[in-house]
Description:
CATH architecture of the largest domain in chain A: Alpha-Beta Barrel
Number of domains of chain A: 2
Shape of chain A: globular
Number of strands of chain A: 17
Radius of gyration of chain A: 21 Å
Strand order of the largest sheet of chain A: 3-2-1-4-15-16-17
Largest sheet of chain A: 7 strands, mixed
CATH topology of the largest domain in chain A: TIM Barrel
Oligomer: homodimer
CATH class of the largest domain in chain A: Alpha Beta
Number of helices of chain A: 13
Structural class of chain A: alpha/beta
Amino acid sequence: MKIYKGHLLFTPERTDFEVIENGYVAVENGRIVGVASQRADLDIADGELVDFGDRLLIPAMCDMHVHAPQYRNQGMSMDHELLTWLNTYTFPEEAKFADTAYAECIYSRFVRDLWRNGTMRSAVFATIHHESTRRLMRLFEAAGMGALVGKVDMDRNSPDALCETVDEAVTANESLIAEFSDPNGLVRPIITPRFIPSCTPPMLEACGRLAREHGLAVQSHLSENRAEIALVRELEPMSTCYGDAYNRYGLFGQTPTLMAHCVYSSDEEIALMSRQGVMAVHCPTSNLNIASGMSPVRKLLDRGVRVALGSDISGGHTLNMFRVMVYALQVSKQVSVVTGDKPLTLPEAFWCATKSAGTFFGQVGSFEPGYEFDALVIDDSDLNFDNYTLEQRLERFVYLGDDRHIAHRYCRGQEIKL
Amino acid sequence: MKIYKGHLLFTPERTDFEVIENGYVAVENGRIVGVASQRADLDIADGELVDFGDRLLIPAMCDMHVHAPQYRNQGMSMDHELLTWLNTYTFPEEAKFADTAYAECIYSRFVRDLWRNGTMRSAVFATIHHESTRRLMRLFEAAGMGALVGKVDMDRNSPDALCETVDEAVTANESLIAEFSDPNGLVRPIITPRFIPSCTPPMLEACGRLAREHGLAVQSHLSENRAEIALVRELEPMSTCYGDAYNRYGLFGQTPTLMAHCVYSSDEEIALMSRQGVMAVHCPTSNLNIASGMSPVRKLLDRGVRVALGSDISGGHTLNMFRVMVYALQVSKQVSVVTGDKPLTLPEAFWCATKSAGTFFGQVGSFEPGYEFDALVIDDSDLNFDNYTLEQRLERFVYLGDDRHIAHRYCRGQEIKL
């Protein structure tokens, strides 16, 4: 039993921070067993006290959409249009991951950088390559950080080096599923058809079957830009909307499902997501960098869609989820200028990156009894030079801080040091 | 004579970087006397060589719109609407600067943070207070950093604590003008009517007279949001546009003029700016944070308006001008989604923050003979782990870097260490 003391800030509800000044969190076997503002109220006789003093203790970040093999290209080629970006920089880079030594090199840096930025759980796209995907999963395991890692499946409209047969895709997936079979493991496979345009109907059917048979989560891209939506309409003429195309293959909420972007989701698509519990992953940095547009997150939330945030490296340029939160707030304000919708607030953005996203990993992302203890200790002493409130201190860290302010990182109760 | 060696990247033209691998810059008395890719081509017999090895050497940043007294509130209260933000947080904070000890404390931090982020020249709003404005100017002088500092003038529609009489404003301005009278000084006064809504016609007349009589630059706010524009139309019914209102008082290009924002400038206003050489200061972080809207910078450039960038603390949340550049690119892409205009490119954003802004200080912001040597040495070794080109290295630093990557800072030929 460990008892952590610090200023607790977290979002049990979407709309507000719960703030416990000099509060206590008791943790046993990786899970929180008590939270209180007074030591006595914990009702726990003994336990080792870890006192973080005047520092902030917040849930760790969840990055719910990120392309690990694009890490080398982070913050690069951002002046190019989508197709040039994809064909000249992104696809050739992904093809390099046939080389597992190269993969090991880039993926090691990637995992370390997630850690550095305080992201303890993530949903990751790898590439089509079995062995390098396996290495990435082992790197997460070795670090002790949680991740859903997808071997990417694709078999059309892509360079030859990134196409595979359905059989190859199924064999590779099944091998990874067998190897990472512990349902309580921190690192788990996730079924990852890249998106409708790069998957034939047999590939999508195979993906749906794998998800169903193994009870695995699914991730893909949805309604990111208008040209993509038009293409999906051509490719799947029987579907009533882009989301419905996934739905027909059992890839839209039949098992837990993440859909990145949702910039242009129709009312019908939003209703389907809400009804089937599909989680939208808002990637504001990417949407701005690649000129996709601005996702109407308030509308998604109002209609009952689950929402998380993603860095979407390398469409997005930063792995820092606090910075991604700031962009989510800014995009939402800009949407509000046009639509009149109420903009997101900081507690809401924080909730998206912690408790809302955390539902995808079980009970993660909040400081409540039963939740796994994923936490960051924030030393904001250089930012806290006046009598700021605890909520103002957190806001200033979110807007102004960086990895230098993250003093400790915990995942499932373990301090992670890399 | 000093000769600096490193990878030079700068923007003599708006559209492209000039890249000189292992290049040389010769500096004498603060000014560049030669730039070459070979030592021999400098045609300079002797000079002390300072070799920066594999590091990048770029012009230092210019922040052309920033409110120093709002520094304490940076990255705070961003969930509030403009009026709450202004009345609850901003105006009460500015009123504190009647206390010069408080001013000294906040302004010291502010100047140090500009330095930390590589900004060697800035155009700064202080408050109405003479003595604390004077202290800010002395702090810049002591640091050796260039600044145009404005004692803010305002006498209506503002809290009593921030209103003054026209006579008081004129006296305070004249005192500062007399004290900082060296036209070649790094720190100079700039005439700063806050904006039309907070200045009566006699105050605006006095400001115009001060600028004209002393040959001083002018800075203010222009067309930031729609409610403000409507108010100006009421207050100045004879003016054909917001810019014309300044123009009638001699505050719109009669002397060098900075106008922050220009989000909603009409065609007429843009034409007037272009004709009279008024420089628009684009503040994309602030425009997003306060939900002002998105400035059509491509249109401004196409119509011949001079454009610079500003952090606009604390409407903006970061003093890092590289991050402001990224936002300028992102906002421009989002504007392009709506208008079809060609988005800004990285060289263009860089040019706005260096050579274009630098015209306001004489010859600053480029590595060309005759220019003052304002420079940053960038150590991007942790970002440069693969065979990136020099331009890619610069782009990655702009998107991913921070103050840790700035190894040295020069202003007017002097290395600045704080």
